[in-house]
Amino acid sequence: MTYTAGRLSLVATADPSTPIAGAEVEVKALVQGEAERVWLDLPSGPVTLVRQEGNYYTARIRLPLAPGFHTLTVKAAKGQEEAEAPLFLRLVAGSLYSPSSLEGPKVKIALRFRATQVALMEKGQSFPLKSEDGYTWTGEVPLSPGHYTLLVLADGERLGEVGLAIPSESANH
Prior knowledge:
The chain is built from no helices and 16 strands. By secondary structure, the protein is mostly beta strands. Strand 12 (118-122) and strand 13 form a beta hairpin. The termini are far apart.
């Protein structure tokens, strides 16, 4: 990239550089020149990057893209002048939560994106979890001792299954 004094130019990166498909990514742009707006151009529409300090802009977003290589575009504009930079991403398949198995009845799950509601489902029963930050979720699954396979739901989206073992000494009967 060539920098010209007084002209708008930018470079863009993503953190992590190899995210899990469906996980949250922080898109970062460093802009030379005084941009009026900076955004990530997605097929679903533009996503504004917010100015941090100096000419540094960021946005935390979930990219609705399948695993594989993707080239996105970050743009900056000032009046009629526009500059753009490619954002190269390699999205990999993987779980959007951890761990893959739990020991209950008290449980804790960490998501790879911010959610507003998370619940574990077992045969029609829903066990809502609570969170302070939207990423780490805790709660209690008051089932009888045994082994269960629960469905993990975040904001109504089915993320997958998690194994749950409830030892017999934790029975609250």
